[in-house]
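Page 42, continued from yesterday. The earlier attempt failed because a stray header line got pasted into the input along with the sequence. Redoing it now with the clean sequence only.
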Amino acid sequence: MSDIEVSELARMVKAPVDVLMRQLKRAGIEVSGPEDKITDAQKLALLESMHEGADDTPAAGGKKITLKGRGAAAGGAKKSGVEVRRKKTLGLRKDNVSSAVPVDAEAEARANELALQAEQDRLERESVIQRSEQERRALEASRLGGGAGAAEVETTASAAPVVEQEEATVEEVSVEPVAPVEPAPAVVPAKQVEEVKPEPVVEAPAPVEAPAPAAPEVVEPAPVEAAKPEPKPEMSAMQRRQLVADAARKEAASALKRRPSRAKLKAAEAAANPPVAKKAEPAAAAKPAAAAKPAAAAAAPAKPGETTVTRKDKKKVRTRQRENPRGNVRGGNNRRGGKREIKVDRGEVKHGFEMPTAPVVHEIEVPATILVTELAQKLAISSTDIIKAMMKMGMMVTINQPIDQETAMLVTEELGHIAKPQKEMDDEAILAAVLGESKDFDETVRPPVVTIMGHVDHGKTSLLDYIRESRVASGEAGGITQHIGAYHVDTDHGIISFLDTPGHAAFTKMRARGAQVTDIVILIVAADDGVMPQTKEAIEHAKAAGVPMIVAINKMDKPEADPDRVLNELSQHEVLTEDWGGDVPVARVSAKTGDGITELLETISLVAEVQELKAATEAPAKGTVIEASIERGRGVVATVLVREGTLAKGDILLCGTEYGRVRALFDERGNSVKEAGPSIPVSVLGLSSAPEAGDEAFVVSDERKAREVADLRREKQRDTRFAAQQSAKLDNMMNQMESGDVQQINLLVKGDVQGSVEAIRSELAKLSTEEIQVRIVSSGVGGMNGSDIDLAAASKAIVVAFNVRADATARKNAQEHDVEIRYYSIIYDVINDIRDAMSGMLSPETKEVFVGLAEVKDVFKASNFGQVAGCLVVEGAVRKGNPIRVLRDNVVIYEGELESLRRHRDDVNEVAVGTECGIAVKNYLDVQPGDQIEVFEHIEVARKI
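This time it went through. Structure tokens are written below.
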């Protein structure tokens, strides 16, 4: 508690200010007036001074009351132990021995503080009590000024020691008025009360009607011998608890009858009761069974020093138990080491009307997708309540199932809460918040970024090898480019950065990504092959990106080269070259002999000069992730093309959902570099995981901000994935219900770089049909480990390894779980093998094949077969056992089976064309001359995807 003024303390303990100042002076506390403040330590010093003053001068014939040391009351094993704090012997004056009880200094000090705090809070909360208190203080001042009786009462009361009764479960506190607490009032002898008995206060200005409390009853003191301690002063915990509970119930019932409301009772008590002459009802004495026991003689006698337990006292006890939740110790008397438990006040009896709590209405923001558990946490309710509400709405969901925004808002409103759609922050807003305001930096000329595009096998990589004076194409698997490569070359016309894109149809996204980050597109067309499908696609990518284009007609060294045909085909796709009156430059080159390479580089420089390419070198670096992979011994390696600023070691790089501090930088030849400027591709080490190809890369100043943005992006990505999975589950369910069981082939894809994995996933997804679905269980970059094999075994998936290998643990697990691993280095082989595997899962197709045709010449009867047709085979052959059709006027009139085939009374299996034979049709007797008998058969043909 904070410091308090002397006058405020006197008002709270209901004692005169001058009496309290004399007691403070006696305790050695110097105060100059009622406005001085005293601290908590000074309050305790005042209390100890009062105790010492009472103990130093005991009467000669005074009695002693002894509190035993810390232990537990004697009792059986079924009774709770009562802890006794300490042992202390008190000497009491002979004339006041009847009102003396044991003292516990620690509990008393604690009770004083709690009582003062409760009184102060109550005074602040209840304005009605404050008004009645002012009236009482005015009445008290008039009485103190009018007579000396009050001083006599004060003197007599101050001579008595401060005592307290403490019980194990519910404590009874009795303190005289001059102590700095506001507990139950102390009691003085009956004679003194009669001398200072106040005038009736029914006519007081309080606007309430109060019954009998204005004249408290006086209890005669018990004989001195009654205060002698018995051999067993402690009573059992059960008896104490029962005694206190009975007293509390009686006091609560009587208080409820006496007052109509709490405010009126407070006003009546303040106006009617004097500060020192209040007596409590001896409720505990009315229990003869408890008073008859020896242990109860010292705890609950009917004497003037006893105070009953009220609801106010019980509130203080519960507060004290909360502040010191040590509880008692199990184990009986003097038994240590038991488990401590917190006492619970089970004897509390609540009376009166309590205002019902209004329902809590939450207002939440709902994202695009949300899990049922997350919605329950936002609404502060159980997940089962949401599931029940959705079941009533006709939706069956699980606890971890994602639901869309509209459904979540409907459920929230159904439960009585308010839902609002959450405003999604786009990437631009997120980056603006992280990067802050952009500063103006000086811009300088930067090198151009040139992307080489074209059809497969038209010489793109070979042309770049000649420019770089390298042999990249000779080392590629299958002689084709399957990764997007980034290089920068120093030429006579300056630095030029090249991006080499694959030409295969599977790498559409790679080509689109290359067109987005480039400044100039070089369209390679073979002079002997012309415009091909991927050439057309490259033209569309260049137009979509809005970048200038340069046409390079390659393989001009071949005799069959026809550049005019190439220009004609390009014009059909709205690419008008300069030779045809357009604005697209053309260069005729040969990657084998090097013819035209110089003219091509000059054209690139001219186009770049016209574009006026500039960038700020001092700004924070920005770029694009061209490719990403996981390499053994190096970790995550991301190829980043810097577009602006300078990327250096130690920078914090944010790439999509990944971030990290740049540990090392390498150029395309593997040489370590310290920094990379605009238009320079560089390999970055240090990211947390492999980013997606095409992600934007930014250098941020704070790693914490980078982590927050990455986590937010991961959360959005996860929500999108959950929504897609849920939609796929529903679609699959409906498809299976409509068309029966659909076969499924599960695949686990591991590749060397993100671009290859992306291309494989895209191409395999296109192989799905109505009968067989291709499901990618998981995909990633890097070598295979044991966890990948475990996942494949659990999902019964085939592992597709593209340019990666399995470690020893993965190979062992694959053998144990019989997991099939297929290694590939060319993307064609991956697609073809999976297509063949899916074809093998398809059921064969049945086809009808024509065998022969016979014309009926005559009909005769046979004893064995009935009607027999004499026929001439006019086409093909007639075979026994095959199904037949009977045609009349080229209309099928019967379809059945050939029962017998004879030639010259001999059974034969086959009759060739131009030969006569007898044919008996099974279960058909209406064959007529001129009819035709067609013979056919059914064969099964394997289907392919």
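Notes: The first helix runs from residue 6 to 13.
Reminder to self: strip header lines before submitting.
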